[in-house]
Design brief:
The chain is mainly beta. The chain is built from six helices and 33 strands. The termini are far apart. Residues 388-408 are annotated as: Disordered.
């Protein structure tokens, strides 16, 4: 039928669909060789997959809570790549991939972790418990805890200064941080960002000015600038050396979900469905990507000169930042994209709330990128967005306003899928409200206000009526 896409048609970019998880996939990573994928899920399991076949190589079981973060670590002592997972059970586990045996379990937090970053044999982890922990991956021992935020630590970056530079060029003076040249920058739900000396653990300064939680951040090392994105709909630029506020970038109409730097261009995604481009040097708004998303943009990665974004509808877009419009749309996931990971050569890994992991290859898109086009964006723009089956946007019929073109089927099939989704939403609505309320209470340290009676009601969950009755008490 003309340009109408069929869901059962073989995707042009889809290499494999991996379906061994039973619940939402929350995180994913690729090892340095590009041969293995690691994913973590609400089903309490982590799975190591083969990129070439899409088959599971090892299922890692042992966590008692959902897995929120994962990564690979090359153990130099053992000369092998190991899997690292962080869970809502407050532990970090290191796994031997060969047989799936847990080699070490680390517990240095009192609440769920929000992010992990591995640097050599060190692991940094942030948490809802308001701290960042630095631990030794070989021994599991805690080296240092960075404490001071009033609410959960939502994001962080590591900043390593060049010791060869002169004192005038270093980020912070020796009077401020001693001989330390390595720094940790954290963002928090207390509306602030902070910078710490990693070697001493000393808190150095606060970046204060947002009127909502700091959700994401990016660093411009060359200009010594910090960018923070917040639920207050703004991006703020700061001078890392002095802590001074430089400027605010406004234009998004909802929370900033991700920010990233590409050369001197700052990219931002938002719950307002848009991907925006800014000048990192001057803070000027340049443009919103054309042919964009129709739902909250939840995640973003930059690789091979393209920007890859995923949204709450399960749609993945591939943008060329030089010409500011989408070059490809990857369809297949039924629900929200929770995580994306890219690998040089056009490999994209996506994990979704629909419990599936998909492996894509956009090599053909990359081959079509013409560097000459970027010299004149006006000439380069041709509205030539390619969908997964090779058809062109202009050949598609225009859907009615109420028809969700995320699903490329006829309207009967669309309505069936939408009805199915609506039933799922209704069944989970009360649970989602309850979970959101509890998380908010924990987030703002009101947990002591929950009485034993209310906690017992939550645990029982005898009926929808009881669940609804609990909510007003929780929010008082």
């Amino acid at each position: 039928m003309g340009g109408v896409l069929q869901r059962n048609k073989k995707s042009k970019f889809l290499e494999h669909t991996c379906q061994s998880h039973e619940r939402s996939v929350n995180c994913c990573a690729i090892d340095k060789t590009g041969e293995l994928i690691l994913t973590g899920s609400d089903d309490l399991k982590a799975i190591v997959w083969s990129v070439s076949t899409g088959e599971p190589k090892r299922i890692l079981e042992g966590h008692k809570g959902y897995i929120c973060c994962c990564d690979f670590w090359f153990n130099k002592k053992k000369q092998e790549t190991q899997a690292v997972t962080a869970s809502a059970d407050r532990t970090i586990k290191i796994w031997r991939i060969a047989d799936g045996v847990c080699q070490l379990s680390i517990e240095h937090h009192s609440h769920v972790m929000t992010k992990i970053t591995i640097n050599n044999d060190l692991i940094f982890s942030s948490s809802y418990d308001k701290t960042v922990a630095m631990a030794n991956l070989r021994t599991g021992s805690l080296i240092r805890k960075f404490e001071g935020h009033q609410h959960s630590v939502t994001c962080f970056n590591l900043l390593f200064d060049d010791p060869a530079e002169t004192a005038e060029k270093n980020f912070l003076t020796t009077e401020t941080c001693g001989d330390s040249r390595d720094f940790l920058i954290t963002g928090s739900s207390d509306w602030t960002a902070r910078i710490w000396a990693i070697k001493s653990g000393v808190y150095l300064r606060t970046f204060q000015g947002h009127t909502g939680p700091v959700i994401c951040m990016a660093l411009d090392v060359a200009s010594r600038s910090l960018f923070t994105g917040s639920s207050d709909h703004s991006i703020k630029k700061w001078d890392i050396s002095s802590g001074e506020f430089i400027q605010s970038m406004k234009g998004h109409s909802s929370s900033i979900t991700q920010i990233a730097l590409k050369n001197k261009i700052l990219l931002s995604t938002s719950a307002d469905w848009s991907v925006r481009v800014w000048s990192a040097d001057y803070g000027d708004f340049i443009k919103t990507f054309e042919n964009g998303h129709e739902h909250m943009v939840s995640t973003m990665k930059i690789s091979d000169g393209v920007v890859v974004t995923g949204d709450g509808n399960g749609v993945i877009k591939v943008f060329d930042p030089r010409v500011l419009h989408a070059k490809a749309t990857l369809l297949g996931h039924k629900y929200a994209i929770n995580c994306l990971y890219t690998f040089p050569g056009g490999i994209i890994i996506s994990g979704s709330y629909d419990s599936s992991v998909r492996i894509w290859n956009i090599k053909t898109v990359l081959e079509k990128l013409d560097p000459v086009e970027a010299e004149d964006p006006k000439l380069a723009y041709d509205d030539d967005e390619e969908y997964f089956d090779g058809s062109r946007k202009n050949s598609l019929r225009t859907p009615s306003p109420q028809f969700d073109d995320t699903y490329d089927t006829d309207e009967d099939e669309f309505l069936r899928v939408q009805n199915e989704k609506e039933q799922i939403r209704r069944r989970s609505q009360v649970d989602d409200m309850l979970q959101s309320s509890v998380r908010q209470i924990v987030e703002y340290n009101l947990i002591d206000e929950i009485t034993d009676t209310v906690l017992n009601q939550i645990k029982k969950k005898d009926s929808t009526k009881k669940k609804v009755e609990v909510l007003p008490e929780l929010l008082e």
